[in-house]
Design a protein that fits this description.
heterodimer, A: 0% strand, B: mainly alpha, 2 domains, 76% helix, flat
């Protein structure tokens, strides 16, 4: 895949989402399903890589760029990730006029809710992939549920959860 | 009101953006301490405007927030410093971690550890869903509006195989035509 197309597809996903992970369904649709230049496993790995370190949640876009186009791809991913942020400059100029229009705010909230539904659908194939865990699908299911509970109901940083999940996978392998 | 140099500003974005774990809100709170309370480079009103507009800017909110506060202080150069200072070092780290996974993925022990983290990703996505939906289901009116939009988007992608772009467009249109009751802060 050439770098321009990579940029356009990643930028499209980022431009049409309103939070870090909300772009994931579109990334999966374009790169895994349509162009088949990325596997579900690589997409999950990209999410892990993006969430292990500090920085914004959308960083997985950079890892996706790396998987598809190597280091130049990662650079393109970074540019695609930050491009929409600059829209805020003209937005600030028009803020007083439009930002508080109830229908505009309502449309944005509807997009956020739709993003949740899209994420739900995109999580199903990734869950299938994770349940094919060599150490057993029961362990994978436990990790999924514990991760969900910990990240939703506590302020524990996600990299601790990733470290714990890696440790559990390793321990299960060593015991087996 | 004092203004930072580009170097000072880049350093704050770099230091705070790449040492604050836990996503956008802790980073924005840490930057508020730096810009508004410690350095007094921004007024609380500037911060409030950047914070609220970042939430309606496409993409990752915290990157838009950094671009906005950078622009408020030093124009476009400040915006660039904000967006890149916040993301570039973490992006390099993410690439190194990705390379690490790639290099070690044939090792069975590393493979087992990766399999554990892959399962965690699914839990992370579910958590993102819960956190996205949570602010909109505090009233029965909110639930009545949220459930069909979330389920409709889910079914449109999963069952009817529509692509995400038209689904997002339809949701925006629905939001315009079906205004919700704003939650009182």
């Amino acid at each position: 895949m050439n770098l321009l197309l990579l940029y356009l597809l990643l930028a499209k996903a980022v431009f049409t989402s309103f939070s870090g992970m909300a772009s994931l369904p579109m990334v999966r649709e374009d790169f895994v399903v349509k162009h088949q230049v990325l596997t579900d496993r690589q997409l999950s790995t990209a999410v892990v890589a993006g969430r292990t370190g500090p920085g914004p949640n959308g960083l997985y876009i950079v890892s996706v760029g790396y998987f598809v186009g190597g280091l130049p791809g990662a650079f393109v991913g970074l540019i695609a990730l930050i491009t929409p942020a600059f829209l805020i400059i003209p937005l600030m100029k028009f803020a007083a006029r439009y930002a508080n229009v109830p229908r505009i705010r309502s449309a944005i909230r509807a997009v956020v809710l739709a993003s949740a539904g899209l994420l739900m659908a995109a999580s199903i194939p990734l869950a299938h992939d994770a349940l094919a865990n060599p150490s057993g699908s029961a362990l994978a299911a436990v990790i999924m549920i514990v991760t969900f509970v910990v990240l939703t109901f506590s302020s524990v940083a996600s990299w601790w959860v990733i470290l714990g999940a890696a440790g559990l996978g390793l321990a299960a392998k060593l015991i087996a | 009101m004092p203004r930072p140099t580009l170097r000072q500003l880049t350093w704050v974005f770099f230091r705070v953006g790449n040492s604050t774990f836990g996503g956008g809100l802790p980073t924005m709170a840490a930057l508020q301490r730096e810009f508004v309370e410690r350095e007094k480079w921004l007024t609380p009103e500037d911060y409030g405007l950047a914070f609220s507009l970042a939430r309606i800017t496409p993409g990752t909110n915290v990157i838009a927030f950094c671009a906005a506060t950078g622009a408020q202080m030093l124009g476009f150069a400040g915006a660039l410093a904000g967006a890149l200072g916040e993301t570039a070092p973490s992006a390099i780290l993410a690439v190194l971690i990705t390379q690490g996974y790639e290099t070690w993925r044939s090792n069975p022990l590393v493979l087992a550890a990766i399999a554990g983290t892959i399962a965690a990703v699914v839990g992370m996505m579910w958590s993102s869903i819960a956190l996205l939906v949570k602010p909109y289901i505090h009233s029965s009116q909110g639930i009545v509006r949220a459930v069909p939009i979330v389920l409709g988007a889910f079914l449109a992608l999963y069952t009817f195989h529509l692509t995400p772009l038209p689904i997002v467009g339809l949701a925006a249109l629905l939001g315009l035509l079906w205004p919700d009751a704003e939650r009182k802060k």
